[in-house]
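Need tokens for this chain, all 1131 residues.
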Amino acid sequence: MGEKSSSRCCCCSWFIGIIVLIAVVLAIVFTIRHNKSNKHPDDGADIVPLPGSIDKNYADALKIAMQFFDIQKCKSSTLLAEHTHLTPAGKLENNKITWRGDSGLEDGSEAGLDLSKGLYDAGDHMKFGLPMAFTATLLSWSILEYGHHMDSVNQLEPAKDSLKWITDFLIHAHPSANVLYIQVGDPETDHKCWDRPETMSTKRTLTKIDTETPGTEVAAETAAAMAAASLVFKQSDPKYSSTLLKHAKQLFGFADNHRGSYSVNIPKVQSYYNSTGYGDELLWAASWLYHATEDKTYLDFVSKNGDEFANFGSPSWFSWDNKLPGTQILLSRLTFFKKDLSGIKGLQGYKETAEAVMCGLIPSSPTATTSRTEGGLIWVAEWNALQQPVSSAFLATLYSDYLLTSGIENLSCGDTSFKPSDLRKFSRSQADYMLGKNPEKMSYLVGYGDKYPEFVHHRGASIPADANTGCKDGFKWLNSEEPNPNVAYGALVGGPFLNDTFIDARNNSMQNEPSTYNSALVVGLLSTTFPTILLRGSSAPTEEMLNPLWPGFEVVMAGTSAEVPLPPDHEARAKRTFHTEGSNSIHKPKIPATEKQRDKSGKRVDDVFHSVRSSFSSSNHVQPNLGFTVHSLHSTSLADLYSPRSMSLLIRSSYLSQSHFQPRISKPSSHTNQTPSKLVFLSSFNHNPLVSLVDKRNPTMQPPTFTPSMTVKSSLIDPDGGELVELMVPESEIKLKKKESEAMPKVELTKIDLEWVHVISEGWASPLKGFMREDEYLQSLHFNSLRLKDGSLVNMSLPILLAIDDDTKEQIGVSKNVALVSPQGDIIGSLRSVEIYKHNKEERIARTWGTTSPGLPYVEEHITPSGNWLIGGDLEVFQPIKYNDGLDHYRLSPKQLRKEFDNRQADAVFAFQLRNPVHNGHALLMNDTRKRLLEMGYKNPILLLHPLGGFTKADDVPLDVRMEQHSKVLEDGVLDPETTIVSIFPSPMHYAGPTEVQWHAKARINAGANFYIVGRDPAGMGHPTEKRDLYDPDHGKKVLSMAPGLEKLNILPFRVAAYDTVEKKMAFFDPSRAKEFLFISGTKMRTYARTGENPPDGFMCPSGWNVLVKYYESLQEGDDSSKQQQTVVSA
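Here are the structure tokens for all 1131 residues:
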């Protein structure tokens, strides 16, 4: 018994000892391997990232992103017979988007075309040719470069299907060599509706370009799309590929031979997809055509036209409007992989500028752009903020892969060298931010993650599929406070503000509207992110990494001769042949010796790219059909870019400094040996000097000129022209100047003339320095703007003029200076270096008011009785203009206002102009605006309550009464006196609608405001002879969103407020409860006060209402007294 026990103990001891020994050995092995795995690349480890395991997060995001193309598809059942090789449109089978049905079936029918395919642009029902073609180009690039990644998660065929859905449309839109249909639908009509695409009833008008109305940008971009897509379908559908290439060549010829900007020739497009030039599209298209054909003619084009169009040495942001960065990367590819082209001088500028773009993206680079949020996101503009970071990340990934595949270890940025892994790290940071790794913890890709936007600005998603709504009644869904009933899976919304915040609101189209070209970009970026295997030791790209779609590229790479296990499908792969374009030779790709099996764990390695070690040699050459990147696999691939476009919330970036503007065509003295400096991304070249200032959806390329904290001193909002004009004569010179003026010819001023002297002298009209001379007048009258000496534009929608009669003109004679005499007879200043020219009153009235009907208040008061001549010159004023009416202390100049804003430490100033008393609806709007600004990240927004103080029509409430009423509003706490400044704006009122509202907005820029609230029918009035509005009530805010020279001012549209009869207070109008709201117009309010009738409780603060009642009672008393006097006289 004891022996058995001893034996058992001995056995147990041996068994335990063996286990311990094994554990020790395993621990040692694990430690060694762990130390090796954590060895820094600089310590000697050769780490080369290659395609391998799939990161489930990115793969899932890619699958979701792909769905948005299906959401945006227009579905049809017919196809023109002439393109019988095209896939019949038909009704989609296996449609996974259950809330989408057939729509746009008759698109193109008015021209005998089938334009029923294609994609709706964004949250609306428009088909815009320029961004749609860009979508196709990017999707093709993504498939060509990274299609193998798509294929690994079963997304390649869906990507190709979506691409073909677009290119089918583009083929039909190009019925002849020099005709291209570029738009389906009328955006003005379309945007007046909020309905489902399946039930839309608006007319689907067509817009085209041809030799009479050329549009080089759209024709060239469409050519690029066709050429890129021809490569995608070259193997799977050669006939279709040939058709695409034929159209691409024709369209490029059309674009080049009939040059002209479509934004200039078709002005209506400026409000939506305004182009800032066509040179970049020509280079982009030629680059793609060379890749598709290897026809040296196209290569010669980019080489010869680079100096004119490429803006060498000046990095910029890649977008639907600016193709230069994409062109630079695409042409760099030639220098990497076409040995016979690497030394071509004409391509070097593109490669060097591409490197400048890349250096600007790496955060630690000496030339890094400062356009970043604190959360690390590239941030250039408030509209569609994700456009720049996603496109930059995609280009950075491409360039990183190009470097790795070429065996190039370093990217030199000034005196600092960076590795391809640094570019990859940057790209991944932007992708991660987009997917939720941000301060808001918000995924901006709808449907991905636990938190994503639920109120996406998208008509189809916001309306239940079974809802029976039409054009107008659908707006109740826009204003609904419930999340969208349908999830717009895969939509990439606009993105965060500079302070990393995001407002998930359906009417916040700036941040919350998706677009199809954004989705193309996201698909491309996500396709680059999930393969993560790392190979160690001397290794080279495998055959698996070589994309067979790109023809004729010789990739230089090498490996060792050591044998390694081949992939399970190596025999099948070895049988695949690669045909080099233009050659009958067949090449079997060499399997590198150090290739390891793919990692099956699915884990992601965050820093995918490490330096390619010098062990790569150039001894082995592989010639795939089109494979060239380390991350290219056997199918297809490439990544695309973004540029979302938005719709309704007309907030514009106030952070884009105009001081850095340079046209694309401007050239540095040298682009070959420049000393690196802090990266400044430049604005795109624009062929029409007015055009670039029109489109708010395509922000200029400059970065913000401040730190990304969203705290901006109001005084940093530069006045127009960069300097505030003040025209007061220095006190030491007043006596001399007055004496000189006494000997000058005299010009007598009216009361309105004096108000304009006040406006000009204090700088409200900066940079204007006097009454307009003829060239300034003509620019203002015809262009609504003035061009400065440096070539920049400032808004100037109203001519500021001084009229004189024949006698005064004769008195002035040849004198160059005149004295200005006030209505009271005092000399208040002078005009110097004067110019006298004809006063064509009819032209002035017609162009300012859009009518010459009698009854226009300003015209009858001021223009009709004025003289037949205009006099312009430089203004000098001896003393500040005073009215001695007890209100002068309210009349703060722009300089005084700016000082007050700084004293209050304002980081945002929002201006509200009105010429009526303030009711609680106004107060609701102003308080809500401040709340929104605080939510946007501002710390101390200040309200500038800025009533108009110059001439107004007879039935308006007088200024003194309004100012008393305003003071009661502050006394009663309706508005907070601590965050409100009340001041008088001295300008006369024209009642000129959209023309005048630009002037009102421009003047507030000069006062330091960076936000401007605009309401319904601003500066409008009823038609003087007909019972209707003189102007469309919505045109004022629309014009402000497009007006040249107002880019740095954020426009905040009114939210409609009305009296809620249930809650018994002013509230924002709810269309679903329309019958419960009472609209009280200014006219009705004045009627209440005039008749002694009280408005509903809660309409206006009681003390403020009493001011109005007393005023109208005094008028009544005056009328009664007048009648009594008349009775006595008649008796």
